[in-house]
Amino acid sequence: MSSSRGQFSSKTGFILAASGSAVGLGNIWGFPTNAAENGGGAFVLIYFVLAFFLAYPALMAELIIGRHTKSNMVSALQQISTGKKAKRIGKYTGLYGVIIATLILSFYSIIAGWMLAFLLEPLLTITGFPEISAWLTAFGNTRNIIFSAVFMLLTTAVVSAGVEEGIEKWSCRLMPSMLLLMACLIAYVMFQEGAIAGLKVYLLPDFRQIGDPQLIASAMGQAFFSLSLGVGTMLIYGSYLRPDENLPTMGAIVTLVDSSIAFLAGLLVLPALFVAQENGVTIYNAAGNLIAGPDLIFQTLPALFHDMGTIGIPVGLVFFSLMTIAALTSSISMLEVPVSYTIENHGASRSLATWLIGVIIFSSSTLIALNFDALFTVVVTLTTEYSQPLLGLMLCIFATWVWHRDMILTEIRSGHPQVEQSLFWKIWPGYVRYCCPALIILMFIQNVVG
Ligand code: PFF
Q1: Largest CA distance in the chain
Q2: Which residues line ligand 1 (CB under 6 A)?
């Protein structure tokens, strides 16, 4: 075991890094498109309920386990278990988390690579390289592989610099820049013709859809993915947190930042869609539904930027920079999961572990990119729809059925001396022991059957 572990140097450093992990393509792309597909405001409402009543308690389980054990998910789950059998299950659950984090990054880096390519496109158009521009925006193996490699290089460079000098420093630079870019874009889009129609679709709930199992399943998947739950990302970030920090408050701030940015992203993407319609871009597909998924980001919005004329160039640039930054702060947290495991359990140095795993993930991205139709959706579904909720369930079980309640209390107390009198402590232990597992299982079954 390596002796010197990293640590976040400040509260703000942790909040920005953990929010950076949470806020990613899932917020800016996934949330608005999910809302567009699932009854607008009805989805937003259910999402917020699930984020605070299901995802936040599960996030707390990860943060508490992480900070107490000061180690990665594999060792952490073994440490909090007492019997031999429980330790073995803990080890395999941890390894499953490491593998899923690795697989998520394998597909995530392909999408993030597309963002990078679309970011460069306007620059090459104005500097007089239309052929390269066209290549950048056309789907193709070479482009996909080159840009996922560039994105992985960026991610690996940050993580190899360590917790304080890499993850914390870059999160503190990138998160405020991202917020600024987003605020500028929202302000611009809101004043365009058609924006109000988009706002209505986004914010007015279609109450007939509110109990729709499909909507609830989508909102739960979105909440788990958005808060980076189950795979040990939040657990490892929690392990770098100082003992005197107040865990329930930290977790609540991260949940609030994550949900607020998802909400803000909806204020950008849906109005932009209707502004595009005003500009003559088709925004409904053949089935009469709003265009969502990749077509929204890589066809409808670029068509809008193109139709805007000269102003469309900086607007497009800002939009894809925003996407790239959001993706980068999330990808560094995913890479930290296998990297910390390799450092702590196999004695590797940080730089060796990071570059080695960077290469492994890039190879797996290449495999997915070369067999896109066969593998991409399968990997996304397997990791985010099935594995993340299942791992979240396991973490809730480990925190409240396997671990001792007194130890949890002692851990939280170190940064929050009056926790025993707080509402958090009156509700959380029982809630994570009974309600969270029941809710996750119910929704999981619904998802599989549906
Ligand atoms: N939370 C990220 C997003 O919303 O895009 C995705 C993510 C990050 C998932 C880290 C899993 C993870 F471990």
Answers
A1: 67
A2: 21-22, 24-27, 101, 104, 225-226, 228, 231, 233, 330, 333-334
The dihedral over CA atoms of 35, 327, 317, 150, expressed in degrees to the nearest 10, equals -140
pLDDT in tens, 349-371: 999 999 999 999 999 999 999 99
Nearest alpha-carbon partner for 338 in 181, 106, 54, 139? 106
Per-residue pLDDT band at 1 (split at 50, 70, 90): very low
Helix 169-190 to helix 11-22 angle (10° resolution) is: 60
Distance 125 CA to ligand 1 centre (A): 32
Compute, in angstroms, the gap from residue 337 CA to the centroid of ligand 1. 12
Q: Report the separation in Å between the CA atom of 246 and the middle of ligand 1, taken as the mean of its atom positions.
A: 23
Per DSSP, helices labelled H in 347-387 are 350-370, 372-380
**What mean pLDDT do residues 407-429 have?**
96
Beta bridge partners of 290: 284
- Atom of ligand 1 lying closest to residue 23 CA: 4
The rounded Å distance from CA 201 to ligand 1 centre is 26
CA gap 214, 218 in Å, rounded: 6
Q: Which of 228, 334, 390 is the pocket-test mutation for ligand 1 (most atoms within 8 Å of CB)?
A: 228
Quickly state the pLDDT bin for 340 (edges 50, 70, 90): very high
All domains of the chain in start order, with CATH:
2-449 (1.20.1740.10)
Q: Using the mean position of ligand 1's atoms as its centre, give its distance from the Cα of residue 247 in Å.
A: 20
Contact 400, 432 (CB under 8 A): yes
Please measure the distance between the N-terminal and C-terminal CA atoms of the chain and give it in whole angstroms: 45
Please spell the DSSP secondary structure of 221-244, one letter per residue.
HHHHHHTT-SSSHHHHHHHTS-TT
Q: How close is the Cα of 288 to the center of ligand 1, in Å? A: 31
The three-state secondary structure class of 415 is coil
Q: Whose CA is nearest to atom 12 of ligand 1?
A: 228
How many alpha carbons lie under 13 Å from residue 272 in its C-beta half-sphere? 33
Atom of ligand 1 nearest to the CA of 388: 11
